[in-house]
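For anyone still unconvinced, we reproduce a single protein record, the chain in one-letter code, the fold tokenised, and leave readers to judge:
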Amino acid sequence: MSDQLLTEIDHVAIAVRDLEAAVAWYADVLGAAVVHREVVHSDGVEEALIAVAESYVQLLTPTTDSSPVARFLASRGEGLHHVAYRVADCARALEAVKASGARVVDQVPRPGSRGTTVAFVHPSASFGTLIELVQANP
């Protein structure tokens, strides 16, 4: 893959057990305010986004015991869950990743939070880090 597909960092996601406590910590300790909150039913999570320049810190907590974030917390505990990169065209970026032979979580892009289109690259393909490809939609 020779063409640069990543345009910037969209967010760094941190899995937490207590979203309200995490939001309060970021506010009290770092002076950071939440700019967006959303429950993403399809992923079984609630998110709180904190703006940092043109990117975000995404605090994630599970809303169901069967969500991937719930499984992550059960096996690894709180901490870095994934890194999300902005791309101009999620479908094109995902196809390029698949064409390289890399393992992906999503075979096709799907709706994400904030009206975005997203797809995940499996951590086994990206040196142990779950990667989210994020396309902003007008």
Observations:
- The chain has one domain: 6-135.
- Strands lie at 6-15, 34-40, 45-52, 55-62, 79-87, 110-111, 117-121, 131-135.
